């Protein structure tokens, strides 16, 4: 398995170098985010192709990965149309000046390639080994489905809200966003736990549970909730009240203002 992950890492590094060159021409680092999901799809198909597994469970698992990764990539591409570089990368570019073109290769592109190689473990191990506990695959598939629906519906609701001119300066507080400030991130974490549980159906799959744990921590503490909410109160006046009454991550019934 280590050799497989190293192969994936090497392929990812080669791929992001090409993306980095494109980003230099476009002056837009955001393009790397489009390929986050599809990179996992490509890596999983690579392992499947090398292993020769052909059971129904393996094809089902491939389908789950493909549906998630391609939907996510398509959503990010569609969401970013005509908006230029993501404000997070634009802030980094402004802070580092001309050095950012080289700095971004390591802090953005190589970092994402490395994360893909580290987090792909539960996907790769399923495609490289015989499944001997299909019950875990069923449970993992159900968890994945719940997470995928939460993420996809949350993304669709947010995109519709952002495209509506009447929403400018307002806070989305309807649909899934009434119960969580980040239902799409919660769905992302949940479906990754689905991948982890699915991996329990193959020998040695338990060690790959670090991947959904790391993904959840990244969403909660690093690149997800903290980065998205930074400066949100200044851009959307009602966001402080929204924070006080709405769960940050796990969907739950809103609190009354002032309630703890």
Structural account:
This protein is mostly helical and about 260 residues long. The protein has helices at about 1-25, 30-35, 35-50, 55-80, 85-95, 100-120, 120-130, 135-165, 185-200, 210-220, 225-230, 230-235, 240-245. Helix 4 (about 55-80) packs parallel to helix 8, helix 7 (about 120-130) packs parallel to helix 9 and helix 8 runs antiparallel to helix 9. It has 13 helices and no strands. It is globular and about 55 Å long.
Uncertain stretches: none
Instruction: Tally the structural domains.
Output: 2
pLDDT averaged residue by residue = 91
End-to-end CA span = 47 Å
Total count of strands: 0
Element pattern in H and E? HHHHHHHHHHHHH
The amount of beta strand, in percent, is: under 5%
Can you summarize the main beta sheet? Answer: none
Strand-pairing-aware structural class: mainly alpha
Enumerate how many helices there are, as a single number: 13
Which shape, going by the Cα principal axes? globular
Radius of gyration using CA atoms only: 19 Å
**What percent of residues adopt helix (DSSP H or I)?**
over 70%
